[in-house]
Amino acid sequence: MIHNAKPGLSVNPFPPPRAQTQGTSMDSKQNTLYVASLAKGLRLLRAFDEGNTELSLGELAQRSGLDKSATQRLANTLHMEGMLDKDPDTRRFRPSHAWLQLAYAYYWSDPLVGQAIPKLIDLAQELGETVNLAEMSGDHIVYVSRLPCKRTYFAATIIGRRLPALSTSAGRAILSTYPEQERNAAIDNWPIKVFTPGTTTDRAEIRRSVEEAVHDGFAISTGQMILNEIGVASPIIGHDGRAHAAVQCSVSAHTWSREKIEQHILPALQDTANAISPSFQPYRSGGLGASDPA
Amino acid sequence: MIHNAKPGLSVNPFPPPRAQTQGTSMDSKQNTLYVASLAKGLRLLRAFDEGNTELSLGELAQRSGLDKSATQRLANTLHMEGMLDKDPDTRRFRPSHAWLQLAYAYYWSDPLVGQAIPKLIDLAQELGETVNLAEMSGDHIVYVSRLPCKRTYFAATIIGRRLPALSTSAGRAILSTYPEQERNAAIDNWPIKVFTPGTTTDRAEIRRSVEEAVHDGFAISTGQMILNEIGVASPIIGHDGRAHAAVQCSVSAHTWSREKIEQHILPALQDTANAISPSFQPYRSGGLGASDPA
DNA sequence: GTTTTAAGTATCATAATATGATACGGCGTC
DNA sequence: GACGCCGTATCATATTATGATACTTAAAAC
């Protein structure tokens, strides 16, 4: 019996939103192989986001939940190590270019991206529409690669965005490749967040959408993240029949309809997703024709 | 000054300036506002790069220069905090999606990107060629945004790449906006790394190229990073007359010549760079500048 | 199939390290 | 002109990280 869907890699979901019970810290996770200072430093990094692009020491302390002294020391360390820039006038901190270099390293480490990108480029050029690569990450999806062809809102043009899987075409497409039981568990339990009046909050409706994807092999969603935006996604299926990623395309509802999409976008989209699929292999050491266990 | 990276064994490529004197470590920068554990954790993150995409505990220890126990604890912490994924079979670590989320946060914080991206999209569509946004970072440039329109080699399609400014058209374009004295100091002292047989190592030649950019308002370079690649870049000039960034375009030398570029690419490229310029507000970052204080 | 070697994991006593309260100085505000 | 806020610097304390060692598992060698 499977409690929560916990696919392949051991992906530790995301931040431990610890309530700051200020106790004497015989805290829960304090084994001797947990370095609190490092974790606190990471908290500082995570304090920056969409709405907090530039933080003073005080704000940093507030947002991270650390006291002034700790924040001072950690922020200073991050600055010395080149992870934070500091405006000498305002004394405020900002993410540094190093953050992009981490992304660079990430890209090399992701086995899927290298295979996908050339094909995504071709696809984007062929369609003339924005094409994305999304990967499942716990119960969210992350946009790993984006090839914008039209102007859109900013968040849709930059990589790293993390969205609830259930609210996105990519997430639903990927989910549609999961075994029925897991699929249902996900649909019942995974988080949903409202972004627009059009965001679907009814899980029954999401189920319909996913089951449709099971049947059709692709998912379509409308106005989930932003009004008048339609997303189409086709799963990139791995050797085990499960997808961890999807090729996604976002278009404007003003110029596109469902039919038109199915006719003009879908074929190429699916071809691309399929073309990427075979290369997604796990490494089994060598030659033996070991099929799956169990 | 560091010219060439050691080609032999892969040792720390980006070691923070720190002597390995393992002694009693009343070390240089150890004030009470420097948290060593955090810095060590960052070392672990930096151990991943282009050639090291997936590291075992041992490799991690070796590349970071930390002992086994420290590595164990820190890596474990990073794993618990969701910064590193761990393959349960091979027990090897990999960058997690969180690295992309940091990039996401970076993008919101960079005042230039938001202004530039829509215009870059338009430009890329108009030209049908790969367009990049590069920013100066110490004596290197970093590709902050990329809009590939043609298949190229992988490294040219992903963001966060850091290259010696002198070896790139973007770097030279930006440099061309610096006051003469600084310009010359940079040309004399900034690092150069050889990537192809075509990489210019002669600083006199680089000076010519930069001075040409001073005169023309744009820079062109050929075969610096990869053979048969031509780069054109136009600086994005701030209110103080200095550029911190450039719009760059990479094309194949097989289908493009210098004249053709000047005729068909340059006008739109410069228009775009100029259109972005006014919105750029300067700030200074801390850190790396090994250059002289004037 | 058995032994050897290596790599990852867990434990623990020690002191070195991070801690956070406190005090100082500069800057914009009231 | 005085106050209050925010960033910076200092310091004694004990909490925290340390790294040597021992255990466990997996792969390599025989």
Automatic annotation (TrEMBL), chains A, B:
GO biological process: negative regulation of DNA-templated transcription
Region Disordered, annotated ranges: 1-27
Pfam family, any one: IclR_C
Classification via InterPro entries: GAF-like_dom_sf (IPR029016), HTH_MetabolicPath_Reg (IPR050707), Tscrpt_reg_IclR_C (IPR014757), Tscrpt_reg_IclR_N (IPR005471), WH-like_DNA-bd_sf (IPR036388), WH_DNA-bd_sf (IPR036390)
The keyword Cell membrane appears for this protein: no
Keyword DNA-binding: yes
Keyword field: DNA-binding, Transcription, Transcription regulation
Name of protein: Transcriptional regulator, IclR family
Species whose genome carries this gene: Roseovarius litoreus
Lineage, broadest ranks: Bacteria, Pseudomonadati, Pseudomonadota, Alphaproteobacteria, Rhodobacterales
